Amino acid sequence: MHPSPELTVVGGGLAGSEAAWQAAQRGLRVRLLEMRPAVPTGAHRTGNLAELVCSNSLGSSLPDRASGVLQNEMRRLGSLLLECAASAALPAGSALAVDREAFARAVTGRVEAHPNVELVRAEVTEIPGGPTIIASGPLTSEPLSRNIAALTGEQNLHFYDAVAPIVAADSVNMAIAFRASRYGKGEQEEGDYINCPFTQEQYEAFVDALLSAERIPLRDFETGIEQGVDAGAQRFFEGCLPVEIIARRGRQALAFGPMRPVGLTDPHTGQHPRAVVQLRQDNLAGSLYNLVGFQTNLTWPEQERVFRMIPGLEEAEFVRYGQMHRNTFLAAPKLLLPTLQFRGIPDLFFAGQITGVEGYLGNIATGLLAGQNAARLLRGEPLLTLPPTTMLGALCRYITEADLKDFQPMKANFGILPPLEDTRRMGRRERSYLFAERAAADFEQYLEKMMVERE
Q: Are 118 and 5 within 8 A, CB to CB?
């Protein structure tokens, strides 16, 4: 019989798992509620905690990239999930990509084994009483969504998100495809990515096929009205646009987007391809690869037909087809404080994609912050409000202070940081270094200040 929890965490995804761990590490008794596998989401495939449903990459680890800055901040704050990601890492050049199953198993094992965590497999239909973190994610169940909407007095915003197909590595025709990383960057001698090169003629035919392919109608989950992709296109998060939507923006949009060929030379021909589809390793065994940036809402038969036009994938075995799902998020600028507390209810926190952060790292980072702040609240300590010049501080400021009429999910990027002084003559790379240096310095100064105040 477990004692009554001091903190309840709703949702065992990236944010909820990190939040539960952080609070438990600080001595709180935590009850973590996850409805899977008894209640499926339509996107998840297992009951493991922290299952990745889209890409298997957590972004670049380079110190002068926004994702690298956020990773460094999370490591300094003791992120469990980044530790698990390192243990399940795959070759992906400068990116932190993971074997998604090994990663989820590692997180599940660590959380389940924590003596202060009670994992309960049950659907939550209303916000629990007492100190709570809601990290139910973009696929929050309908009953809980209605309860949250009743609390907030606002209809939940929502957008559609998409996942890319996965193919069996041994079904890729390497007489056509080739291994390489852009500009030769990568850990493996031959490169970390498999590249499928297009000629001009192949590219034009592929775009034509995408534009004419049959798509699955989208359902408006708020009104029950069926909508086509055209009507709902503005509701996609920009970073997860389906390839067929990108193709509608112009015939060259894909070649300058997910199919850009820069930094690659086809060793079979010695030529630069007109366009490429990159495949990234998806599991430790190297038997599965996902199509990078190829989120889609095409019907499964059309995915078979159209994606087999990709050079090298003519006989590919599709282990998972692309699909779409609804993502739900709050009108956070009206509802949340930078500490991730709900305005007016100090012991209610929200974390993860439901807050309006986007990307795996943002989800984990806000879970980490919510977990530590919940523990600080219950222990009578000052809560963390990171400087806006840090990446996590900037994300929290964005979701809690953005103009609501322009509010859309946001991932870590230098554009949300306060501007630097007089950088007009600097190149982009130099500005990135300066942003990263300032973020690191201000982060360390803030941590030192919090330690002094605590003493």
A: yes
